[in-house]
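Researcher: Quick test of sequence recovery. Tokens follow.
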């Protein structure tokens, strides 16, 4: 004790550092239970604060990396985080140990490499040292040094390869007067276009005919081997579906979706008419569009139906269905009383010239 007392005086540590509860008990408690209590206090405390600061949601975290050099438990610390915060089944979970004080930055390097091959996700990195079971009870001076310098603490950080433009293009926030509202920036159209293209590329192999799949493969090989500088192949999916229902969004978004996919005005009709009749009803608008097609008597048994939605974050998802029956268009629904009045033609032809100026300018990133 005399040796440790003298060492503490020259260690550079102040009097407000932290020891675990187990080490402060009389007698000292170095049990597995005490060590786990320290681990939960430090790790969950750091992650709780990270979540509060960033607002990140469990489904947005695709990678978890935890390091504690000399503490190992089953289940692992990373598994404790996945379970407590109900992260997704596909989350990549890594529990590192034995790598010493440099592991904090080494963990960031691992997160960086994983983010290179896992797009549009977040990596949560937690570094700590659980000291309860690492406390030395012998009398060899060289081993007592660790007791003096290693104290309780931990940190959590969040890394992401999600674009700030994507995240900020639609965001709820207060203005300079404190009034809450939803800001839509001029980046919205660019982000939506990029995200929709990515979604179509993911969907294409599941629904495209063989000829289109071969074109997509050829494009991929040419780009991979740098044979030529070509643009990514945008699959021609319009022949793989009978009915197309893109989220109503706004007129500009509808025009961009139509341009990207090459859909006809007839195929865009349900989306445009839903926007005209009901406006953007957010996540429910897809069902208004589907009902429009049903009420028009267009959806027959075995028809292929594609619904695609996009929104803040920025996210895009698709559902590809096959009708199991011909829908009775006489069923009562929001379109029943007015369906004969649609489609309306020449809807505000000047809207695309004036609407863009209503967008909030992009913010500096």
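Model:
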């Amino acid at each position: 004790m005399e040796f440790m007392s003298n060492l503490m005086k020259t260690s550079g540590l102040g009097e407000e550092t932290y020891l675990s509860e187990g080490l402060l008990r009389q007698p000292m408690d170095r049990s597995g239970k005490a060590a786990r209590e320290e681990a939960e206090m430090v790790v969950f405390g750091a992650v709780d604060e990270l979540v509060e600061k960033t607002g990140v949601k469990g489904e947005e975290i695709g990678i978890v990396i935890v390091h504690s050099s000399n503490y190992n438990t089953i289940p692992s610390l990373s598994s404790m985080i996945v379970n407590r915060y109900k992260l997704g089944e596909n989350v990549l979970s890594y529990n590192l140990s034995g790598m010493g004080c440099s592991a904090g930055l080494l963990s960031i390097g691992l997160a960086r490499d994983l983010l290179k091959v896992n797009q549009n996700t977040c990596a949560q990195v937690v570094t700590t040292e659980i000291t309860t079971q690492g406390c030395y009870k012998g009398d060899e001076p060289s081993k007592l040094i660790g007791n003096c310098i290693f104290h309780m603490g931990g940190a959590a950080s969040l890394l992401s390869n999600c674009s700030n433009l994507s995240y900020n293009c639609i965001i709820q926030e207060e203005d300079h007067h404190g009034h809450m509202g939803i800001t839509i920036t001029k980046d919205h159209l660019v982000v939506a276009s990029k995200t929709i293209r990515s979604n179509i590329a993911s969907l294409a192999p599941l629904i495209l005919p063989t000829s289109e799949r071969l074109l997509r493969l050829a494009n991929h090989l040419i780009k991979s081997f740098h044979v030529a500088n070509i643009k990514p192949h945008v699959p021609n999916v319009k022949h793989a579906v009978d009915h197309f229902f893109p989220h109503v969004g706004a007129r500009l978004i509808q025009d961009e979706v139509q341009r990207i996919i090459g859909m006809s005005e007839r195929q865009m009709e349900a989306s445009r008419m839903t926007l005209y009749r009901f406006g953007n009803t957010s996540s429910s608008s897809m069902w208004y569009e589907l009902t429009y097609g049903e009420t028009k008597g267009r959806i027959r048994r075995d028809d292929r139906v594609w619904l695609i939605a996009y929104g803040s974050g920025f996210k895009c998802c698709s559902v590809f269905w096959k009708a199991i029956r011909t829908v009775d268009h006489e069923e009562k629904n929001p379109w029943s009383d007015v369906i004969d009045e649609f489609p309306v033609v020449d809807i505000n032809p000047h809207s695309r010239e004036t609407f863009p100026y209503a967008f909030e300018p992009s913010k500096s990133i």
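DSSP finds 13 helices and nine strands in the chain.
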